[in-house]
Design brief:
This protein is mainly β. It is 0% helix and 48% strand. It is globular, with a radius of gyration of 18 Å.
C-alpha cells in the first residue's frame, strides 16, 4: 500500500493506493525515487522492490498506474526476507535468503556495464542464523558497494553480530566482522551522523536490548 500525503502532511487525511497484491508472504522492501537522486540514471519511473517467500518483484509507477514484474533472480534460496537496491548502473541487489534466513547473496547483471540482461548470483555467506538486517552502500568510500548484514539468533559459533562484505576489483569478496556477539541485530541503517563525510552504521537488537552506533573513523 502507498500512502499519498495531502498538500500539508501535518493535517488532513492521507490517501492510500494498493500498489500490488500478487504476493502472499512478504517481509521487506526497498524503494528508489527517480529524478531526485543518482538513481535517475538507473530507473526511469519510481520503483519499489518487494521481497517475500515467493521471490522479489519490482513495482513501478508510470503513466499514472502501478505495474509489476518478477525480477526472476536465479537460484534464490526459498525467496528473501531482506532486500536492498544497489544504486549503480546497471542496478544490483543484495538479499538475505530465505525469510529469516542464513544466506547473504548479491545479484548483478552478468557481464557488468553493457553486459547481458541476465542476473549473476554470488553467495557471500551461509552462516547467519535469523538474518534480519541489511544495507547495501559504499560505506568504505571505495566507489563500490559493500553489503552489511546482521543476524539475531546465535549461529553455529554461538554468536550474534554484524558483518560487512567488501568486493575487490578482481570480483572476490572479503568479510569484515563489525560486531562480535554484542548485537542480536533486528535492523540496521547507514548514515553520516556526524557529518564527516563517512557513513556510520546504526543497529538495534531486541534480544540484546541495545541500540549501537558504529562510528567510522
Amino acid at each position: 500500500t502507498a500512502y499519498i500525503p495531502p498538500a500539508d502532511p501535518s493535517v488532513g487525511n492521507w490517501k492510500t493506493a494498493i500498489i500490488n497484491n500478487e504476493l502472499h508472504k512478504t517481509h521487506n522492501f526497498d524503494s528508489v525515487e527517480a529524478g531526485r537522486n543518482r538513481a535517475a540514471s538507473v530507473f526511469s519511473p519510481d520503483n519499489v522492490v518487494v521481497a517475500g517467500a515467493e521471490g522479489a518483484r519490482a513495482i513501478s509507477y508510470t503513466g499514472g498506474k502501478w505495474t509489476s514484474s518478477d525480477l526472476a533472480f536465479p537460484d534464490m534460496n526459498g525467496g528473501a526476507g531482506e532486500l536492498r537496491i544497489g544504486i549503480v548502473n546497471p542496478a544490483s541487489y543484495a538479499c538475505i535468503e530465505p525469510m529469516h534466513g542464513n544466506t547473504v547473496a548479491v545479484y548483478e547483471v552478468e557481464g557488468g556495464l553493457g553486459g547481458a540482461s541476465r542476473w549473476k548470483r554470488t553467495v557471500l555467506d551461509n552462516s547467519l542464523n535469523q538474518g534480519h538486517a541489511l544495507a547495501y552502500a559504499d560505506v568504505l568510500g571505495t566507489n563500490s558497494l559493500q553489503v552489511i548484514a546482521g543476524w539475531r539468533n546465535k549461529n553455529k559459533e554461538g554468536k550474534v553480530g554484524i558483518k560487512l562484505y567488501a568486493k575487490h576489483k578482481d570480483g572476490s569478496w572479503t568479510v569484515h566482522l563489525i560486531d562480535d556477539n554484542k548485537m542480536a541485530c533486528e535492523d540496521l541503517k547507514v548514515a553520516d551522523l556526524n557529518k564527516d563525510g563517512k557513513l556510520d552504521i546504526i543497529a538495534c537488537g531486541r534480544a540484546t536490548r541495545n541500540v549501537v552506533i558504529y562510528w567510522q573513523k
